[in-house]
What we know:
By secondary structure, the protein is mainly alpha-helical. It has one domain: Orthogonal Bundle (MetI-like fold). 78% of the residues lie in helices and 0% in strands. Helix 3 packs across helix 7. The model has no long low-confidence stretch (mean pLDDT 85).
Amino acid sequence: MSARLRSAVPAALILPGFLLVAGLFVWPVAQLVATSFGDRAGALVHYVKIFTEPTYLRVVGRTLLLSAQTAMLCVLLGYPLAYQLNRAGGIGKAVILVCILIPFWTNLLVRTYGWIILLNPQGVINGVLRQLGLIEGAVPLVYNTTGVLIGMTQIMLPYMVLPLAAVMSRLDPAVMRAARSLGASPAQAFLKVYVPLTLPGVLGGFLLVFMLSLGFFVVPAILGGPRDLLLAQLIEFNINQTLNWPFAAALSTVLLAATVTLYWIGDRFFGLGRLWGAR
């Protein structure tokens, strides 16, 4: 009897969390997917509309393109930052972490409206450029795709830097010393040894940022223009404006399926789950 009780303890500990996830996530998602197939005109009518009508195809394509651009910018900006974070000493590492984490902990709306102050035609950035004589009028940096990319990149950058720095910290420094001892220059050792060893972390971070960027709503809604409609905004429009809930559910299901597929690809081929310690 005691052996049976001991074997039941793990299940008893897991049960509350399982019920919570099932009730607050699995069941609502199942209802969402069921709603997307519940139209009288046909079960797949909304999915056919999404993938055949040019208007919705443009929204899907724009969402994918902006997410990929954001992920690429995060790689270009995050790789040298993660490299320096890994090489810095105690004080330098603390300063870099503070610069990364304080914006990361700041409210999303505050950060987004802060970019309006910086990017608007009469804002700080245009003012500095005019003072330097680089421009005469104003550079359009907000309420367009440029503003969306700047805002999304700033918000998503920690999701690239921190996992990539963790991957870099696990590399054996003796590998670089061995490359140098065999005649490689510092640049050759970095490009031919260090970068290939960190490439799985780069690819995993790219997919992580790309996945999270697919569902962005606040930044495109505030910093974007009328031509920068993304998938999350289209879902919100069909829920609150047109009240077309089955179509909104179909859009949400497509977004969910894309995110799950990307996560599976990242975990299966690039070890995405290991970026935060999973085995």
